[in-house]
Amino acid sequence: NAGVTQTPKFQVLKTGQSMTLQCAQDMNHEYMSWYRQDPGMGLRLIHYSVGAGITDQGEVPNGYNVSRSTTEDFPLRLLSAAPSQTSVYFCASSRTGAGENQPQHFGDGTRLSIL
Amino acid sequence: AQKITQTQPGMFVQEKEAVTLDCTYDTSDPSYGLFWYKQPSSGEMIFLIYQGSYDQQNATEGRYSLNFQKARKSANLVISASQLGDSAMYFCAMRETVQGAQKLVFGQGTRLTINP
Fold it and tell me: Which of A5, A31, B85, B99 has its CA 20 to 30 A from that of A57?
């Protein structure tokens, strides 16, 4: 089972460049989300989506855009990369939000460095 | 204000001992859920155990159990008979409802090291 697939696994960008982190899930989950993980900060929610065509901001949305044109895919776009966006990015999905006893299934992460 | 607090940045335990990882939370939502995840050095996030706010009994999953004390707003993870493979970061997370949408809020994590 593929579960949640993130690409790429590693990426180095220069300040000001743009790029898209890809996330796809094959579990027909309604809810998808993006987190960033920084040392000593745990995981912080960037954006989330409760279904195709519906997205909303999380805790740290600035500098990132998302879209949800299909149930399966939830790409994260960095508009103009900044060194402060150096982090590990996780995509996650679950059934019906993070509700009840449905855990979020995480991808393996993308390690992003901005020079 | 921190919604999820994990007060132990790091813990060192001898193999085969039991270990308790602390987690306290803050919410005014009467319906919430608490999750524990394990993150080994390879980086993936592994779901361990869940406790719902209305669950009458503490959750258990194999060697993992959750010591849920609702009045104290604590949801500590207990690992019995620890193994070397338990060495990892452990995150407590709470499901909360914000403007009708449900989100997960994570604590800062506890790094557990099991010594042989």
Answer: A5
- DSSP letters spanning A38-92: ETTTEEEEEEEEEETTEEEE-SS-TTEEE--SSSSB--EEESS--GGG-EEEEEE
Q: Answer whether A108 sits within 8 Å of B44, measured CB to CB.
A: yes
**What pLDDT shows up at residue A19?**
95
B36: tokens are 């524990």
B36 to chain A: closest CA residue = A103
Structure token pair of residue B94:
């709470």
Distance of alpha carbon B97 from alpha carbon A56, whole angstroms = 13
8 Å CB contact between A110 and A6: yes
- How far is residue A73's CA from residue A71's CA, in Å, rounded to a whole number? 6
- Are B106 and A108 a contacting pair at CB < 8 A? no
% of chain B surpassing 70 pLDDT: 93
Record the tokens describing residue A57, joined without a space: 């901001």
Query: Mean pLDDT score of chain B, rounded to an integer?
Result: 92
* Closest residue in B to A88 (Cα–Cα): B43
Residue B72 is given by DSSP the state: T
Output the pLDDT for position A89: 98
CB contact under 8 A, B104 and A88: no
Q: Are A92 and A35 in contact (CB under 8 A)?
A: yes
Residue B107 has pLDDT above 60, yes or no: yes
The answer to whether B104 contacts A106, with C-beta atoms less than 8 Å apart, is no
